[in-house]
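Inverse folding, one chain.
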C-alpha cells in the first residue's frame, strides 16, 4: 500500500507506555518538549479526543503533524438501543465491516460495560447466538479498549466503572490483545479502572487462565461451567473435548484469586437436583462463587429458560451444600442483549470463516 494512511501508526494499538515512548521520539525529533507526549497520551484514553484536531491544548501545527504521522481511529456506531430497564446495547462496525456488540448495564452507582473480544466466536456453545455466527476474526487492542473509549466520547458521555469480557468472543483465545487491553483498562494513563472491577470470562482456556494468573494485578476470572459433568458439558460446549472439566477445575484451583462459575440455567437440561449437587462439589473443590444466569431466550436455539422459582430452588440447594451463590438478574431482554443477539438481528448469520471446533489459541 502506498497511500499516506497506511504508513501512519495507530496510537490506540499501543499500550499507554509504548505510545508515550513513540510520541516522545516524535516530539524530540521536532525539537518539542517532552511533556507534549504526556499531553497526547492523556487524550488517547483517559480524556479521549475525537481526533487530533480536538487536542486544542496543542498548537495547530503540531495537531496537523500528529495527524500526518499517526492515527487514532474511532469505532463506527451502527446501532444503539435502550432497554426499559436502562440497559443499553451498542453495535459497532469495524473498518472491515465486521460488527461487534457492547452492552452498558447500570446498577446503582455502577455502570458495567460488557465488551467483545472477537468478531464472532469459534466455540459454538449450543445456546449462544455468537457461536451460531461462527468465528470471524480476533479484535485488536484499539477495537476492544475502543469500546470503552467510545462510551466516553458519547454526548453525554457514559462513565464506565466496571468491565466484563462477556460480549462476543472468547477473550482467552485472543490473549495478546486482551493482555494489552487489561493494561489500558487498569493503568492510570489508560482508563484507571480498578483490577477488581475487571472480569475476564472464559470457557476455560487453560493457557489463557495461566497467563491471566501471572499478571500481578487482581483481575477477576469467571469460568463458564454450564454443566457439572463432562457428558453433559460436551453436548453444550464442544470445547469441553479440548479442556475437560477436571482440567478446568485444576486451573481454577491454581488461580491465586477467587473464581466465579457461570452457570446458565437451561430448562430440563442442567437444572435437576443432581446437577446442583454435582455443581456444588466442583465449586467447593476450588472455592468458587457460583453465578446462576437465567437463559436469555432470544436466539438461544431451542432451549427454554428454567422457571425463576426453579432457579431459586437450585440456588437453595447449592447454599445448603455450603456454596456461595447469586442469581444474576436478566437485563435488556427487550433489546436482545445477550451475547451476539443484536448483531444476528441486524446483520444476519454470516457463514463462519473458520468453523473448526476448538479455534485457535493465541497466548503471548
Ligand atoms: N467466551 C466467554 C465470554 C463470552 S459469553 C465465555 O463463554 O465465558 C459470556 C457469558 O454469556 C457466558 O457465560 C455465556 O455462556 C453466556 N451466554 C451466552 N449466551 C447466553 C444466553 N442466551 N443467555 C444467557 N447467557 C448466555
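Residues assigned per position:
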Amino acid at each position: 500500500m502506498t497511500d499516506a494512511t497506511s504508513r501512519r501508526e495507530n496510537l490506540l494499538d499501543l499500550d499507554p507506555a509504548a505510545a508515550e515512548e513513540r510520541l516522545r521520539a516524535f516530539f524530540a525529533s521536532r525539537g518539542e518538549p517532552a511533556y507534549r507526549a504526556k499531553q497526547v497520551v492523556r487524550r488517547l484514553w483517559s480524556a479521549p479526543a475525537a481526533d487530533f484536531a480536538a487536542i486544542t491544548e496543542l498548537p495547530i501545527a503540531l495537531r496537523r503533524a500528529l495527524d500526518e504521522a499517526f492515527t487514532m481511529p474511532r469505532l463506527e456506531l451502527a446501532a444503539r438501543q435502550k432497554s426499559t430497564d436502562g440497559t443499553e446495547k451498542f453495535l459497532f462496525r469495524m473498518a472491515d465491516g465486521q460488527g461487534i456488540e457492547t452492552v452498558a448495564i447500570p446498577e446503582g452507582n455502577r455502570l458495567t460495560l460488557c465488551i467483545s473480544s472477537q468478531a464472532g466466536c469459534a466455540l459454538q456453545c449450543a445456546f449462544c447466538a455468537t457461536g451460531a455466527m461462527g468465528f470471524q476474526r480476533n479484535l485488536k487492542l484499539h477495537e476492544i479498549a475502543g469500546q470503552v473509549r467510545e462510551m466516553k466520547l458519547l454526548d453525554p458521555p457514559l462513565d464506565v466503572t466496571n468491565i466484563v469480557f462477556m460480549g462476543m468472543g472468547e477473550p482467552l483465545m485472543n490473549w495478546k490483545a486482551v493482555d494489552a487491553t487489561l493494561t489500558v483498562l487498569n493503568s492510570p494513563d489508560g482508563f484507571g479502572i480498578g483490577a477488581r472491577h475487571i472480569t475476564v470470562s472464559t470457557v476455560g482456556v487453560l493457557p489463557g487462565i495461566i497467563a491471566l494468573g501471572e499478571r500481578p494485578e487482581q483481575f477477576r476470572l469467571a469460568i463458564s461451567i454450564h454443566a457439572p459433568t463432562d457428558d453433559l458439558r460436551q453436548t453444550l460446549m464442544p470445547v469441553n473435548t479440548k479442556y475437560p472439566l477436571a482440567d478446568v477445575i485444576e486451573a481454577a484451583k491454581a488461580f491465586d484469586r477467587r473464581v466465579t462459575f457461570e452457570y446458565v440455567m437451561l430448562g430440563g437440561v442442567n437444572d435437576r437436583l443432581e446437577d446442583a449437587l454435582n455443581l456444588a462439589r466442583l465449586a467447593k473443590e476450588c472455592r468458587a462463587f457460583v453465578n446462576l444466569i437465567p437463559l436469555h431466550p432470544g436466539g438461544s436455539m431451542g432451549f427454554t429458560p428454567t422457571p425463576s422459582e426453579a432457579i431459586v430452588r437450585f440456588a437453595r440447594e447449592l447454599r445448603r451444600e455450603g456454596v456461595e451463590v447469586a442469581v444474576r438478574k436478566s437485563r435488556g431482554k427487550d433489546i436482545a442483549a445477550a451475547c451476539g443477539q443484536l448483531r444476528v438481528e441486524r446483520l444476519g448469520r454470516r457463514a463462519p470463516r473458520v468453523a473448526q471446533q476448538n479455534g485457535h489459541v493465541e497466548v503471548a
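The mean pLDDT is 91. The longest helix spans residues 16-29.
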